[in-house]
């Protein structure tokens, strides 16, 4: 799950060194509490079994709004989307959903909690990410009949051999991506990706890329359109946590007011003069030095695997999957 507006930190140079810095451990199972147990993301994932090589399987891109009630009020209120891959085995009549999500919800995957430990403020990250793979497609959740902004887009037909390969791939994705990461960090937009985001959308996009390498072919009229919020920063400097502890806590406390849109929140934070801004990535904090104009929004088309990006996109004849919503 993620808010579809990706935030990209546009860096003028690439950070190189890494300084380990840590307060209390991330995703401490005693301190991190899942407020809502998701029935569609069981802790013990059910196996999809092995598919017959001749099975005919239709693959869909699934998108649905994030609900405040279901997913916590932070991103729910901002009108984000959740995405997944749906598999419909025409041969057996069974359906399957593969998705990746923040284990403690997107809000917790994005921002830490400031907690009181024996009278001292501590930073608690509950930012684990996890694969949810269920032998079921919730037709109510993904159906535009019930939620106008939901959508189901046919992507390709594959066979059982390809689905078996995909299952291995999605399990390895789960293993190699244990941390949810909301923001992309680039040193230069569209050039070098310094820190990739790891969200439901990234999983979904990577799924279609993998299926392409397994032989799936897509209709090139299908184009993704995504929004990016860019922050302009100098090379982020890794900092020693213990030296910046109070400043880092002050930064995250300023983010506790989560009212308004994501742009409102970012503008508010940027507007606080004298407040150091930080980025947390894989256990390390980085100091950001923002440059004028500090922030920009970009809308970009992303072709599906194996398709060129059309030079001119005809919004009437193309099948555009909009991820723009603010
Ligand atoms: C976010 O983490 C906090 C701290 O563990 C927890 O109390 C809260 O329930 C979590 N939120 C959700 C929506 O899981
Ligand atoms: C799978 O999806 C198809 C198409 O929506 C539906 O007809 C079928 O009943 C579903 N299968 C199961 C086992 O729910
Ligand atoms: C808090 O204080 C109690 C009593 O002194 C101690 O047992 C506990 O380990 C402390 N907790 C932390 C997280 O330091
Ligand atoms: C399917 O989605 C609907 C709408 O979000 C939800 O109310 C329902 O509990 C879900 N069903 C299952 C079995 O997950
Ligand atoms: C995904 O990884 C978690 C551990 O991070 C594990 O508990 C879970 O079973 C894995 N899911 C699948 C489908 O392999
Ligand atoms: C499944 O699809 C792959 C890729 O198109 C193809 O190489 C393979 O022969 C197919 N297998 C069967 C049993 O049709
Ligand atoms: C590809 O998608 C376009 C737009 O939705 C549609 O008009 C066209 O028929 C599709 N082509 C194939 C081969 O399905």
Summarize the structure in short.
With 326 residues, the chain is of the alpha+beta class. The protein has one domain (6-322).
Write down the overall mean pLDDT: 81
Query: What is the multimeric organization of the chains shown?
Result: single chain
> Unreliable runs, pLDDT <50, ≥5 residues?
1-5, 13-21, 68-78
Gyration radius (Cα, Å) is: 20 Å
Task: Provide the succession of SSEs.
Answer: EEHHEEHEEEEHEEHEEHHEEEE
State the share of residues found in helices, binned by percent.
10-25%
Number of helices: 7
The structural domain count equals: 1
Overall 3D geometry? globular
Family: Belongs to the CLN5 family.
Protein name: Ceroid-lipofuscinosis neuronal protein 5
Keywords: Glycoprotein, Signal
Signal peptide: 1-23
What would you say this structure looks like, in words?
The chain has 326 residues and is of the alpha+beta class. The chain has one domain. It has helices at residues 68-71, 73-78, 105-110, 160-176, 200-213, 241-254, 262-271; strands spanning 6-11, 56-65, 81-89, 95-102, 113-117, 120-124, 129-134, 151-159, 184-186, 193-195, 222-233, 237-239, 277-281, 284-288, 290-303, 319-322. The strands form four sheets. Strands 1, 9, 10, 11, 15 and 16 form a six-stranded mixed sheet that branches. Strands 7-4-3-2-8 form a five-stranded antiparallel sheet. The longest helix has 17 residues, at 160-176. The protein is globular and about 60 Å long. It starts with 5 loop residues before the first strand and ends with a strand. It binds 2-acetamido-2-deoxy-beta-D-glucopyranose (NAG) (7 copies). One 2-acetamido-2-deoxy-beta-D-glucopyranose (NAG) is lined by residues 117-118. Residues 1-23 form the signal peptide. Belongs to the CLN5 family. One of its GO terms (biological process) is exocytosis. Keywords: Glycoprotein, Signal.
């Amino acid at each position: 799950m993620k808010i579809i507006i990706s935030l990209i930190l546009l860096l003028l140079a690439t950070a190189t060194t890494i300084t380990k810095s840590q307060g209390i451990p991330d995703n401490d199972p005693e301190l991190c509490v899942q407020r809502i147990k998701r029935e569609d993301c069981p802790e013990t994932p059910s196996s999809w079994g092995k598919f017959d090589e001749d099975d005919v399987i239709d693959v869909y891109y699934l998108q649905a709004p994030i609900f405040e009630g279901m997913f916590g009020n932070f991103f729910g209120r901002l009108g984000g989307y959740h995405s997944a891959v749906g598999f419909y085995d025409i041969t057996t009549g069974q359906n399957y959903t593969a998705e990746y999500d923040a284990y403690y919800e997107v809000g917790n995957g994005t921002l830490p909690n400031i907690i009181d430990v024996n009278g001292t403020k501590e930073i608690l990250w509950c930012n684990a990410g996890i694969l949810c793979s269920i032998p079921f497609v919730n037709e109510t959740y993904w159906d535009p009949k019930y939620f106008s902004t939901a959508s189901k887009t046919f992507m390709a037909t594959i066979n059982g051999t390809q689905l078996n390969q995909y299952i291995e791939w999605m399990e390895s994705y789960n293993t190699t991506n244990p941390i949810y990461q909301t923001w992309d960090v680039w040193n230069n937009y569209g050039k070098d990706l310094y820190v990739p985001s790891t969200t439901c959308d990234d999983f979904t996009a990577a799924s279609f890329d993998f299926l392409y390498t397994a032989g799936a072919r897509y209709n090139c009229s299908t184009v993704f359109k995504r929004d990016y919020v860019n922050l302009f920063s100098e090379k982020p400097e890794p900092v020693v946590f213990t030296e910046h502890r109070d400043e880092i806590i002050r930064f995250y406390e300023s983010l506790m007011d989560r009212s308004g849109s994501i742009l409102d929140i970012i503008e508010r934070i940027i507007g606080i003069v004298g407040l150091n801004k930080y980025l947390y990535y894989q256990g390390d904090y980085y100091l950001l030095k923002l440059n004028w104009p500090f922030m920009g929004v970009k809308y970009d088309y992303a072709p599906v695997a194996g398709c060129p990006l059309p030079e001119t996109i005809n919004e009437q004849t193309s099948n555009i999957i909009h991820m723009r919503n603010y």
